[in-house]
Design a protein that fits this description.
Blueprint: E1 4-5, H1 8-17, E2 21-25, H2 44-47, H3 50-53, H4 56-65, H5 67-82, H6 88-96, E3 102-106, H7 112-116, E4 121-123, E5 126-132, E6 138-141, H8 144-158, H9 167-170, E7 183-186, H10 197-207, E8 210-214, H11 226-232, E9 236-241, E10 250-253, H12 256-267
Parallel strand pairs: 1-10, 2-3, 2-8, 3-4, 8-9, 9-10
Antiparallel strand pairs: 5-6, 5-7
The chain binds adenosine-5-diphosphoribose (APR).
Adenosine-5-diphosphoribose binds next to α12.
């Protein structure tokens, strides 16, 4: 079914009337904060094949046999997140929570929704602002400053001023890379979703009456099933993306940083 296009008034009316609004976001909402998406041109997976870099076994093999490439990948992922700030899309989403009951469900691991002021955020793929122990439990929270420190140490390895073997020592207190090993609390391909957020997100999707789907290609399951579950439960699906969506009731074409502040203006 072809989605109705660019009817900002109609969507604003639906937000005003919403009993429970879900804003489901992907990498596109953080693109304007300088964080690359995954599958767009010059996206992360265009530069780093996911079979080598998006699953645990691939990462371990790359770290052992191609350490320089491994450090290059960590820098490509972490540095944009370490220096990022919320953009107008994150701020507009935070403002929606003052208009109606709003829950944010994000696939992103950058912590920018919370930094913009969103209170109810489900991080279904985890976050780089937390470290997990060997059992996947939260070992500690990190700040963006901590991530900047990690990036500085990675640059020292990358430019050869510090041997890779000294990295664990340089990151002591932030993430323990030696036994008992810790790791960033992010979900890789083939791993279980982050709990309890994933369980909450499924309930939220089946409870909402309006879902804004912002900046996701909708290709990675199980998160990509959330709009369908919401639709089956009777919700209206509105997509915000520069690219026309596969399935939606409405499409607001454009970049999130332009479309969402405009939608909030319509609410005023
Ligand atoms: N505003 C809105 N949407 C945008 C913008 C923007 N400024 N820039 C790009 N987009 C859209 C693209 O058109 C595309 O639909 O964002 C989407 C990005 O898609 P992906 O790169 O596939 O990212 P995402 O859908 O979030 O990936 C899902 O895949 O790699 C895994 O775990 C990773 O969480 C990630 C999951």
């Amino acid at each position: 079914m072809t989605p109705r296009k660019d009817d900002h008034d109609c969507v604003a009316q639906q937000v005003r009337a919403a009993r429970h609004l879900i804003v489901f976001t992907g990498a596109g909402v953080s693109a304007e904060s300088g964080i690359p998406t995954f599958r767009d041109t010059s996206g992360l997976w265009e530069r780093f094949p996911p079979e080598e870099f998006a699953c645990w076994n691939g990462l371990v093999k790359t770290a052992l046999f191609h350490p320089a490439r491994f450090v290059e990948f960590l820098l490509a992922v972490l540095e944009p997140i370490a220096v990022a700030a919320p953009n107008p899309a994150h701020c507009a989403i935070a403002e929606l929570q003052h208009r109606c009951r709003t829950t944010v469900i994000t696939q992103n691991v950058d912590g920018l929704h919370q930094e913009a002021g969103s209170k109810s955020v489900r991080e279904v793929h985890g976050t780089f602002l937390q470290v997990a122990d060997g059992k996947g439990r939260v070992a500690r929270n990190l700040t963006r400053d901590d991530l900047r420190h990690v990036v500085e140490q990675l640059h020292r390895v990358h430019d050869g001023s510090m041997p890779l073997l000294r990295l664990p020592g340089a990151l002591k207190g932030l993430v323990n890379l030696l036994r008992p090993m810790e790791r960033p609390r992010v979900v890789l391909f083939g791993e279980a979703m982050a709990e309890p957020d994933w369980t909450f997100a499924q309930d939220d999707a089946r409870d909402c009456d309006l879902m804004l789907v912002v900046g996701t290609a909708g290709l990675v399951y199980p998160a990509a099933a959330l709009p369908r579950w919401a639709k089956q439960a009777g919700a209206e699906i509105v997509v915000v993306d520069p690219v026309e969506p596969f399935a939606a009731d409405q499409w607001l074409e454009g970049r999130a940083g332009d479309v969402l502040p405009r939608l909030v203006d319509h609410l005023r």
